[in-house]
Design a protein that fits this description.
The complex is a heterodimer of chains A (about 110) and B (about 270). Chain A has about 110 residues and is mostly helical. Chain A has 3 helices and no strands. Chain A has a domain at about 25-80. In chain A, α2 (about 55-60) runs antiparallel to α3 (about 70-80). Chain B has about 270 residues and is an alpha/beta fold. Chain B has a single domain (about 5-260), classed as Metal-dependent hydrolases (TIM Barrel, Alpha-Beta Barrel). Chain B contains 9 helices and 8 strands. In chain B, α3 (about 80-90) packs parallel to α4 (about 115-130), α7 crosses α8 (about 230-240) and α8 (about 230-240) runs antiparallel to α9. The relative contact order of chain B is 0.15. The mean pLDDT of chain B is about 95. The chains are: A mainly alpha (about 110), B alpha/beta (about 270).
Amino acid sequence: MPTKRTPRPQGKLPAAAASRALVDHGFVPVRAKLIEVAAFLDRVERHGAADDFRCVALRTAAQVLLDGKPERARRILERLSDPTTKPDAVSTGKAALGAWQKPSSPKRAK
Amino acid sequence: MRYIEPHGHMVSRTTDDYQAMVTAGCVAVCEPAFWAGFDRSSADGFRDYFRQITEYEPARAAKFLLPHFAWLCINPKEAEDLALAADVLAMIPEFLTKPNVLGIGEIGLNRNTRNELKVFEQHVDLAVKYNQLILVHTPHLEDKLKGTRLIVDLLRSHPGVKPERVIIDHVEEHTVNLVLDRGFWAGITLYPDSKSSPPRAVDMLETSGHDRIWLNSACDWGVSDPLAVPKAAFEMRRRGHTAAYVDHVLYQNPVRFLSQCPKFRLGA
């Protein structure tokens, strides 16, 4: 891959960054999503589906939330991504599943 | 507020959506060719679809005073069938002269297969041959990172491609800089359950810059929101970004990219 990079201006925060307002508006919706994650993990465990590769991937990715490092969204997306680099020989179906499964076992449930 | 919806599959939407979008400040809508939710059985199905987005849909949008533009291709979800793809690719040039056609799109990859990559390259060849803008679809979920890398590599190695005339859509936090750093435009798609939410989109604008990015709803027949773009404007304003900043991202950026096609004109 060519390594030439095109310079781009850095993004910037608004002059009057409303940091308190960010929490005021964002906390309750995000709190709800975090509880949904917890309830989902409880649910799949209760119903014997916790070993599904997608549930395993979710638990692994969630560890990023607590490692104290930045760019958590990017790193979680990368953890859920196919790390291979070559095009696949054949399609395994039209729909992606949300987490990558090693091809040693059936690549994707269908 | 004024904004452009640069990626909406309006054939799947009701006239109520047109009315709501115009009421929210939409001044133009662009419709890339995409998958109908089922595989067409022949190239004739595409001929009818191309007629729909170049003749019928602009007339429907005009009833709501909304300029309608289109992009043409065979979507990557149907690109596994190389014979069908060849038939559709051969048909596309006769539609490129339609007054609302802006370029080739949304081409790209779905499951990152060899056949998809082959058909993607054929579309790029066609776009270069006819000096068309290019709109690229990147794969979903776990396939996006790999697919975006394959797409960027192919585009960068193609001697006829000018990165400033290519927009690579559906970027997320793990692909946005991969696209921007190599000179392409990036599109952020706002979906309720996948791709990006309005808050995450504004995060990307704040951390990766906002000069070569547009936002779109990619509203279609699935879970999607035709008013996602104005909702992102609200998120920007709530964080303290100025009205000029919102206008830059939601109106001026798409105008700047799309105006590279002389057929993109907005009324007074």
